[in-house]
Specification:
Chain lengths: 330, 330
């Protein structure tokens, strides 16, 4: 009797979108049985499955269908953050979780640098004046010599630091533990000490994964301690930032500007007070999504799948209790 | 009889603006007689003057008052471009002209990099959607790996090249003469050959001084030869660009976007078709004007004035026939 092929279940988005199914799955055809499914049918597609690929990368469906995962070894998520997937039973299980680390680093760093420069040069103000056919000369800000604090010392935070340094912005970071002489950041302060240190930064970038430790990290106290006129950029997760406290810190100071790509609720509700603010620039959770990103995500999964089928070590293995891929110890 | 002090006439803007008179002139009090004047009275303030400082840096008044310049040795212009000042009699005279080279290089390069990133990440599109409370995910452009052509090989063009290279944009330049292995640009093509080479650039930056050679350089033929969707950035002078041809190249292609800080007529007339275009970002001739720029311009003049009073060599001496400060030959 022929040995049966390993089974890979692929969770796809429900709606009729381009790229509803990841490109290139046929490359695995000879070596695995592929079951594409959607959230509503996930519980039926999990029994017997050895691996699960979350192409629908922000789906929360796995938790509900977990009882049907009777032989699951591996879950790959096509996202840098695994917060939407994670739940206690999964964290405590033997199932290996891998993520899309690496795909978004440079695109997000470019977005952050663009936000820094756009605010410094008042490009939103120029566009609004253009809409009114108003010619008004203003003095703008020099970016070289400013100081940025990057919250989150993962791969995305490190790439942000590199691009900001490339234009002579001074950078330091906040992470789980304070340390000096980090190869990419130099000084890393403890996220617990944000209030004491955040005031030295002209630019604050949240690039932290969403974990219990980072949920609500940027609260009224922290936002009240920023430097006068500081620019907050959030490309991490919306839940790290207290949006009501953000509005207060913009309204009454000290915060000067916020560039927000992520929100506690997405799409951002139509009645959010953030939409109308001239000191806020909003984008639709897209900072890392450059042309070709879905192909890159699919290729990254295929590469890990071949490793898995070959019994090799997987890339981007997430520490399920920490909620991110730990940095290799040097 | 006491030796009389040298006379420095300072041409100030006519209107009641902050910084109407350059700060720090009192530092020269013991060594020179300072005559502050405005355009209407310039002819009365020039007789006997040994030096002229154009604090009103875009003034065209010198040409009209030239007959009264009976002992002028030196003119300093608080601008990077001397096109507004220059006329044949001045070019043919022995009067030395110096300019503000150096003050604007880095700020303008930051503005250009900001424009490159803002377009790539569709920040204007995000702001317009924000105004309509519209959440719409889009794929954006990766900047690393794009190619930029910088027109103008002066100090500003070189700083632009350095900042673009810092984010992994490939750069080449266009100048008066073609050459390879330029220390900052690598390949420099001849501006006469723009049509043949401009199509390889995703980003085109005009940083050329306005001279007879560059007036109308970016005409219909050149703009018709750009790559599909290319981004044109003009921080040089408006007259280098044919604005009617620009509108055509945006309307019918191949040009994709234009960021314009300078215009043939400034302020940009209210009936210009540029204002309403979503593929154009307009700012009010301010790309180099970071906070503190006027103080820096005044200090730069004072430094040159002390050199002049001490009989030392002046900085930033303009080649009056070329219309810019030549690069030292190495």
């Amino acid at each position: 009797m022929a040995e049966s092929l390993p089974i890979i279940t692929v969770l796809c988005p429900d709606d009729d979108v381009p790229h509803a199914v990841p490109p290139g799955l046929d490359e695995l055809e000879d070596r695995a049985e592929i079951r594409t499914t959607t959230a509503g049918e996930l519980a039926d597609a999990l029994p017997g499955a050895d691996a699960l690929f979350l192409w629908d990368f922000f789906s929360r469906a796995v938790s509900d269908a977990w009882h049907a995962a009777d032989s699951l070894e591996w879950i790959h998520v096509a996202a840098a953050g695994v917060d939407k997937l994670m739940f206690d039973e999964l964290a405590d299980s033997d199932v290996v979780v891998t993520n899309a680390q690496g795909i978004f680093d440079r695109p997000i760093a470019e977005y952050v640098l663009g936000a820094v420069l756009a605010r410094a040069k008042d490009m939103p103000g120029s566009l609004r004046r253009q809409q009114n056919r108003t010619w008004e000369h203003r003095e703008t800000q020099r970016v070289g010599g400013l100081t940025a604090l990057v919250i989150g010392t993962g791969a995305i935070g490190r790439e942000i630091a590199a691009l900001l340094r490339a234009v002579d912005v001074e950078v330091f970071a906040a992470g789980r533990t304070a340390r000096e002489q980090d190869p990419d950041f130099g000084t890393v302060i403890a996220s617990d000490d944000l209030v004491a240190h955040i005031g030295t930064a002209d630019i604050i970038v949240n690039a932290a994964p969403l974990t219990p430790q980072t949920t609500g990290l940027l609260d009224a106290e922290v936002l009240g301690a920023v430097a006068d006129g500081a620019h907050l950029i959030n490309i991490g997760r919306g839940e790290t930032l207290d949006e009501a406290a953000l509005v207060d810190a913009l309204e009454a100071g000290p915060l000067g500007f916020a560039t927000l790509d992520v929100f506690a609720q997405e799409p951002l509700p139509e009645d959010s007070p953030l939409w109308d603010r001239k000191d806020v620039l909003i984008s639709a959770h897209m900072s890392g999504d450059v042309i070709g990103w879905r192909d890159a995500l699919a290729e990254q999964f295929l590469d890990n799948a071949r490793r898995w089928l070959d019994g090799e070590e997987l890339h981007n293995v997430v520490d399920k209790h920490k909620g991110y891929v730990p940095r290799p110890q040097s």
